[in-house]
Write a structure and sequence with these properties.
Structural class: alpha/beta
Number of domains: 2
Strand content: 25-35%
Number of strands: 15
Shape: globular
Order of helices and strands: HEEEHHEEEEHHEHEHEEHEHEHEHE
CATH architecture of the largest domain: Alpha-Beta Complex
Helix content: 25-40%
Radius of gyration: 20 Å
CATH superfamily of the largest domain: Medium-chain alcohol dehydrogenases, catalytic domain
Bound molecules: NADP nicotinamide-adenine-dinucleotide phosphate
Oligomer: single chain
CATH class of the largest domain: Alpha Beta
Largest sheet: 7 strands, mixed
Distance between the termini: 33 Å
Length: 334
């Protein structure tokens, strides 16, 4: 007798997911019962144990930036993007017939990217997507919070700026998700690190290894006469023109957002000298393997500010939208 068909294949199974059908405030988010997805031949079905709420998703929920609606949906979110959730950690419940990399029972962490959908009880991911076995020494909550911010920090510092040991690196927004990882990764790569944050977060940023911490409420790092090889503005609160004077010759300015910065990247790459390096990390497979190794070697602290149950996703969005979270905000999926 063959294996019993799973409820997924029966097509009548349901799951809880957080949905939004129009752009707007966190009030547009609601929890609903939707069909449980079934993995395709080259996909895995993950029982999500934890996901997160990021600043990027709050912007997606608002339908911002406006040009982003070309991808998100012009007047309302596209059907396939109505459940947010970029990063996740969970256990593989079943795999498609052609899957080789993973098996049922594997504990994984991963990045759904523009497919989103991790703010739900189950999520299908392509086996070759941004997915890896989770660090053995981290909880599901920690692993879920160690995907997007950490891999984005790695992408900008290593892939974009080619960070080198001994360089002077300034991290603005050092207490946020990308920022807390950027401080630690820049130290890991041997840089001398200055973190910029507000008074209440100075101790946190110091504890992550920053050599120097600047309180942005008291000092403007663009006007103190210091110069850096890399200025990584993880929250894009500055501009290239403001930071130009604080960059060394051939120094590099890294903003995480802003269409204008992509034009500046083109322009400065042709002009030579001080450069803007913008971009978006999408394929995070290699980064996840690197981060797993680093976390397992106790080389990366994962900062979790708050935890919310799936039912309180709107509350989590409200908090993240304040722009003052420390590290990461996690959604625990029971
Ligand atoms: N390009 C990419 O691939 C990519 C990928 C992911 C995210 N992003 C973008 O990157 C940005 C940052 O994401 P995130 O999740 O790291 O942000 P986040 O965690 O939400 O940032 C919050 C932190 O920013 C700090 N902050 C607020 N105002 C500041 C200021 N004026 N100066 C310095 N720090 C300030 C806050 O500290 P205080 O409370 O002390 O003010 C808080 O700790 C978002 O816009 C997101 O959309 C880009």
């Amino acid at each position: 007798m063959g294996p019993e068909p799973s409820p997924v294949e029966q097509g009548d199974a349901r799951m809880k997911a957080v949905l939004f059908t129009r752009y707007g405030s966190p009030d547009v988010l609601g929890i609903q019962e939707v069909p449980k997805p079934a993995p395709g031949d080259k996909e895995v079905l993950i029982k999500v144990h934890a996901t997160s709420v990021t600043s990027a998703e709050c912007a997606m929920r608002r339908g911002e930036p406006r040009w982003g609606r070309i991808i998100l949906g012009l007047r309302r979110p596209r059907k396939r993007m109505r459940t947010l959730g970029l990063e996740m950690a969970g256990e593989i419940e079943s795999v498609g017939k052609d899957v080789r990399r993973f098996k049922k029972g594997d504990q994984v962490f991963g990045f759904a990217g523009f497919n989103v959908g991790a703010c739900a009880e189950y999520k299908c991911m392509p086996e070759k997507g941004s997915l890896a076995l989770k660090p053995a020494n981290s909880t599901y909550e920690e692993a879920a919070a160690a995907v997007d911010g950490a891999s984005t920090a790695l992408f900008f510092l290593k892939d974009k700026a080619n960070i080198q040991s001994g360089q002077r690196v300034l991290i603005n927004g050092a207490s946020g998700s990308i920022g807390t990882y950027a401080v630690q990764l820049a130290k890991y790569f041997g840089a001398e690190v200055t973190g910029v944050c507000s008074t209440g977060n100075m101790e946190l940023v110091r504890s992550l290894g920053a050599d120097k911490v600047i309180d942005y409420t008291k000092e403007d790092f663009t006007k103190n006469g210091e110069t850096y090889d890399i200025i990584f503005d993880t929250v894009t609160k500055s501009s290239f023109s403001q930071c130009r004077g604080s960059l060394k010759k051939n120094g590099c300015y890294l903003p995480t957002t802003g269409l204008k910065n992509h034009f500046l990247m083109l322009w400065t790459s042709m002009a030579g000298g001080k450069r803007v390096m913008a971009g978006m990390s999408v394929d995070k497979n290699e980064a996840l393997l690197f981060l797993k190794g680093l976390i397992e070697a106790d080389g990366l602290k994962i900062i979790i500010d708050r935890r919310y149950p799936l039912e309180q996703a709107a509350e989590a969005h409200r908090y993240v939208e304040s722009g003052h979270k420390r590290g990461n905000v996690v959604i625990t999926v029971e």
